[in-house]
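Two proteins, back to back. First:
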Amino acid sequence: MKVVRILGGLGNQLFQYAFSRELERRAEEPVFTDTSAFDRYRLHNGLELERVFGLSLQRIKVQTARQLCTEPTNPLTRARRRFFPKKSHFIDRDTSYHGDVFTLAGDRYYEGYWQSERYFEGVAAELRRDLVFPALSPRNEDFLAGLPRPACAVHVRRGDYLRPENTHLAVCGLDYYRRAIAELAPSCASLVVFSDDPAWCREWLVFEGSSLRIVDWNRGAESWQDLALMAACEHHVIANSSFSWWGAWLGEAGGGRVLAPALWARAGRGAWGYRLGYADIVPPRWTRMAVE
């Protein structure tokens, strides 16, 4: 039995789901998902894979999952999870690609983010076919219909990245966006900005001669519509965010360019002892831009 833990925002959920699909292909057996952590997870918008994409997850019973993993429910189990997890509990702490994870034999519980396209290259075509957005709201449909083409999606992630406990995150600053937009603007008829800080974007992302449009109406449970709008654009300037990563990846059918930050996170360790490498998160065909 193989079980993949699903947790985080929609971008992280997509990485975990994609990994589970590749794991299932290679293992040649059903792969189950553990979504029980959402019972106490209060960030983002809960489990969205089924609601947004209509996917059918093969959920595992909580009691069965607990037999394979070390659930951090108290100080003792948190210490065990970090230093002495069960043999069947594989935790991806490196945030870089490690292909040997697919060779692990026996019953396994996989916990991680799997943030590299290399983890699901074998099922990429199937994923692009299956990850279809539902109908957009009338406002978003009208926005797309009137959008001058080609369009460039620009994602600005600030918000929680600016909190003191997140100093390990390399926030993409104004210089990054100015250089990236300057490179793509000549090829674009419009720039579409998505951000958790639209006020900052209105004040600072001002470019002469560019048609700048800020999408600020998709909130809460409807935030996925930002992702759909991103994927509908031809070009992309992404933040160090799994959300805009997937907007760019799902939008590659448009044949445009993707500019991504060369620095995804600052050196060091994040929560639970994760080593913040992210060496493989940006596909080679995308252009890496320096982050000051």
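And the second protein:
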Amino acid sequence: METKVVILCGGMGTRLKEETEYRPKPMVGIGGKPILWHIMNIFAYHGLNQFVLCLGYKGEMIKEYFQNFEMRNNDFTINLSQPKDITYHSRNTLDWTITLADTGASSLKGSRLKKIEKYIQDDIFLTSYGDSLGNIDILSLINFHKRHGKIATITGINPTSRFGEINFKGDNVISFREKPKSVKSLVNGGFMVFNKEIFNYLTEDDECDLEYGPLEKLASDGQLMIFKHEGFWACMDTIRDMEYLNELWNSKNAGWVFN
């Protein structure tokens, strides 16, 4: 069985409302492609091409994008008298298998994960937010997780903005605190690896979050580890972030792209 990548795509993205009023945040574009496509490419570069997308707010737009992926990304000729007779003039080479799962319009992240439990067969799986990019060494992340034998691994980054604060000793997470008023240590940048035991910490209740509660409990149980990433990382949280990421892409300085 292949290790699957679960991407959380259901939030409303209220801090990016200029864009997310019309589309879900994972569909906001960088260089003409949704940020979701860029995130999936990070994993695919490392040989992981089995995806589960946790849909919520405007999830039908993500379904439509992948259902019509060939038309959206290629020139084609169509015979209108036989509309199913379509000739594509270049072919998609992405060998991705994607499960698009409706996990509720207002569910929090823990609930969304629990609702896709039935699609996870392997002992471990990866999880990513639908708005974060980085040149994460995914294979090293997975190997690190397998070596320590705990339930959960989160990737620690050192951004200039605010996310869940991680206090650690060596590679052991001592405590996890979501969005503190002042950040003095590494923070959770997503790109997580979980054993299936994570589902015992989650419920399908829409109010079940991931950071508040489950990760805190995993830390207190000694089951949460941190993979330290010192390379590029960025998040699309605001219009300014979107413009910055597009500037990097257009100037060929996109730090999340592996050559």
